[in-house]
Amino acid sequence: SAKNILLSMVLRPHLQIEHVLKITLATAEIVVNVLEQFLKKQNLPEVVFNVKWPNDILANGKKIAGILSESSLRNKEVIYIVIGIGINVNQDVQKFSKDVRTKSTSLLAETGQESERERLIADLILQFEKQYHQLERTSYSEAISDWKKRCQCIGSQLIIQTHAGEEEGVFFDVSDNGSLLYKTKQGAIKELVSGSIKRMQTANGING
After folding, report:
1. Same domain, 97 and 59
2. Which residues span the domain enclosing 139?
3. In terms of domains, do 79 and 173 share one?
4. How is residue 172 annotated by DSSP?
């Protein structure tokens, strides 16, 4: 039987392409809220959830869920976005490879009990439907603010691969559009628009 949740939703937000990342962060915040409430309602052990830029959700320091988004555009305006949510629910982490096991987990591994996937899916859809229009009205500002409070990665040491080569910096903040802001060794504040993070090292040892 299926062990995890793989869920896709189609959204039609009023956004320009440069603001799409806000939806990813807001979705992660909604998923964390749903997971916390679900565990409470099911009388399951408490789990500490955090988020990691741009699309990971951590449970007790290990990845338990991820968010992916794919956009359809017309003249830099978003026509629709497909948001994909993946959550490790009843997966036996002992079946993960040793390397994956040190970085990933599941609700089963963290609580010691199996969870009702169908109920969790229903909770996710209901909460997303309830909060989506509120997110649109507030331009996602509240969700990004809440996301920042959960993010343990702000202050992390980064190695960023850019078109010009590698650059070291510190994760400084998240901008209003959801992009990562980092401070270089020279003290300049830059926005990660193109390029990728090769390494992220937090004070508590979370790597990326």
Report:
1. yes
2. 5-150
3. no
4. E
Residue type, 54: P
Total domains, the chain: 2
Residue type, 136: E
Q: Are residues 122 and 171 in the same domain?
A: no
**Cα–Cα distance for residue pair 32/38, rounded to 1 Å:** 10
Residue 76, pLDDT above cutoff 60: yes
Q: Which two tokens stand for residue 166?
A: 């590698």
Give the DSSP letter of residue 142: H
**Span 133-188, pLDDT tens digits:** 888 888 888 889 999 999 988 999 999 988 888 899 999 999 989 999 999 999 99
Question: Does the residue 185 lie in any domain?
Answer: yes
pTM of the model: 0.91
For residue 157, which phi and psi values (nearest 5 degrees)?
-80, 135
* Residue 54 covered by a domain: yes
14-35: average pLDDT? 91
**Residue recorded with tokens 């052990």:** 45
